[in-house]
Amino acid sequence: MEDKENGLSYKGIKIAIVAGTPGAGKTSVLIHTIRSLINLGFNPAVVKIDCLYTDDDIRYKKLGIPILVGLSKDMCPDHFAIYNLEEMVEWANNQSQNIDILIVETAGLCHRCAPYTKNTLGICVIDATSGPNTPKKVGPFLTGADIVAITKGDIISQPEREIFRERVLEMNPKCRIYDVNGLSGQGCEEIAKEITKTKSIMHEELEFEELRHSAPLCICTLCIGERRVSKKYHRGVLRRIDGFTKYLGE
Amino acid sequence: MNIKEITIIGGYNKHRELENVRELTIKKGEIFGIVGPTGSGKSNLISDIEQLAQGDTLSGRKILINGEIPPEDIRRNPRKKRIAQLSQNMNFLADMTVEEFILMHAKSRGIERENIVDKVINLANKLTGEPIEREYNLTVLSGGQSRSLMVADVAVVSDSPIVLIDEIENAGIKKHEALNLLADYGKIVMIVTHDPVLALMADRRVVMKNGGMCKIINTSSEEKEVSKRLSEIDDWILSLREKIRHGEILGLDNVIKKQYM
Prior knowledge:
The structure holds 2 protein chains of 2 kinds. By secondary structure, chain A is of the alpha/beta class. In chain A, 29% of the residues lie in helices and 19% in strands. Chain B contains 9 helices and 9 strands. Helices cover 36% and strands 18% of the residues of chain B. Chain B folds into 3 domains: 1-82 and 161-174 and 187-219, Rossmann fold (3-Layer(aba) Sandwich); 88-159, no CATH class; 221-261, no CATH class.
């Protein structure tokens, strides 16, 4: 923090990667969380990853923070997010506000890819009304998360809420669970505090950053199990966040 | 933790004005009523207490236990939670049997007890005319059955010193027996109700308006007397209901004999 004030040295950036089923309330939860982060004196920036379309950036822009949208088009959105992590950090570092927290909101589709990396904070947003069997079905984006934010608990009964929570713990015993409300923002301050406790990553460390879980098979190097994030390890059909698509390989 | 009292520190109503009632303390052993028109904020008050809100809900209320802010883990961890809540309805989104539901809920509360499934089901079956079996799927239960199961679950599995009840009257179950099961001696009981009998059974009641706690009324000795009379009328109506349920035909003598009005 001191260094931020004199602006002399770069202290790295805290990265939170947020995954969750569509409609679970990721954006609503993040908007309240970001407000708390700003109140706590931090300068967050957001990257929103989606496939074909999003208007979530309009909601984020109202917070007055830098927002970058990445549309993966025909590339798997989670693979796209992983492949572009370095770009996102560079983008955040190039903003004028001394960005110290980068939040990546993923598209969250197949639940099979968990774009969490070892030194970022993995946040899973999951909807309690999806039923207590959901935690068993969703895979690495829940089992690999540090933080599980359960939304919409207010519209089910107490025993149903408690059973849902128990199922989450069965799948991921080490996670920290928060009940959050995307409408009122309840619980989001705690999520913000968890983000502030994440250690910062230096840009040059990203070259060695690894996924917690390998992504499923598809058509690029990630698809065959590459876990290193850095661009230089990737081959296949690859789309950059600025839209440039290339084929690398033989 | 021995819970002696809970305190509600007032927040705001729907118009963002301060609530009239700024502080309300309810002590162990008290039955406290929550009344007010539909949409006046009764269920939100109950849910603030269930979550032990700390100014982080829409109302901005704060809930203290024994005069102090409760520790984090009591707010979050059902194993440490000392509050049981009976909601208006259960959605039963779960594709599971009655037995799995009870066992899973007991696990979430950290309760290991022999025959807990039988205990809950036997209790539930005292409240409903249509018996529940352990292998029934939750989604096939009737309204009365699921309500009875919820009451029995709150009484046995989430047995807690603070009990919150959100409308028990429209459930097609025996409301007095249900209330007796839930409101054991020495508990703090808060009950949302539109039913005059239940409202007057409480020692005090808060009147809700526009999302805020508007005023507190102490049940007078006259009201207690009214409550007694209402109870008799209630029993009489219940007896007529049972007759109709069992296919009997009512005559004018069923009404004339009882000159309560």
